[in-house]
Amino acid sequence: MFVQLRTMVLSNTEIRLEVEKIKKKVDNQDKNIEVIFRYFDELPEQRAQPRKEIGYKISKKK
Fold first, then answer.
1. pLDDT tens digits along 23-55
2. Are 9 and 3 in contact (CB under 8 A)?
3. pTM for the complete prediction?
4. In whole angstroms, how far apart are CA 38 and each of 21, 25, 44?
5. How many Å separate Cα 46 from the centre of its chain?
6. Residues 9, 19: contact at Cβ < 8 Å?
């Protein structure tokens, strides 16, 4: 069964081209996911730096 399916896919160029398109999409998604995880790894490093406070400070009068 699998041998017949493989020979049919190899003989039919349209199906083969579609399979190649799917492979490329999957490869690109893998690369995009890797980039996203790299950004996630960098996030704690950015938050570790102290931030400058903004806004008005209200002094307490007694």
1. 888 888 888 888 888 888 887 766 666 778 888
2. no
3. 0.40
4. 26, 20, 11
5. 20
6. yes
